[in-house]
Amino acid sequence: MDIEFQKKWDGLQQKMKARFGEELDVQSILFIIGLQELGKNATKFTKDQKIEVMHVAVCSLLEPYGYYDFEGRDQDDWPHWSVSQKLPNLDTIQQEQLIKQSIVEYFEES
């Protein structure tokens, strides 16, 4: 793993811990990004809705890489994307690295 990236990831983890009072894993950060992209507060979500919130985050994060195209919002104001480029075959470690990198970039831009 790139040392510079690891410093950025660790810094982001520290900011999250300061804000939320505990260290957050990747899934929790995805949920937070999904809520932010939805423009909704943390309300009661069903298990399926929580998965959808995290899907919103993944699509938002991978859109700049050219994997998804934003299509718009539905009648319930949920965003939707279409696949524009198939994701490469990545092992679990590579998938996590791509997601972490996109999370770091997301917070650097916001």
Note down, in words, how this protein is organized.
There is one protein chain. The protein has 4 helices and 2 strands; from the N terminus they run H-H-H-E-E-H. It has a two-stranded antiparallel ribbon. It is mainly alpha-helical and 110 residues long.
Order of helices and strands: HHHEEH
Going across the major beta sheet, what is the strand order? Answer: 1-2
Helix content: 55-70%
Structural class: mainly alpha
The number of domains:
1
- Show unreliable segments: none
- What is the mean pLDDT? 92
Note the gap between the termini: 24 Å
Based on CA atoms alone, the radius of gyration comes out at: 14 Å
Major sheet: 2 strands, antiparallel
Large-scale geometry:
globular
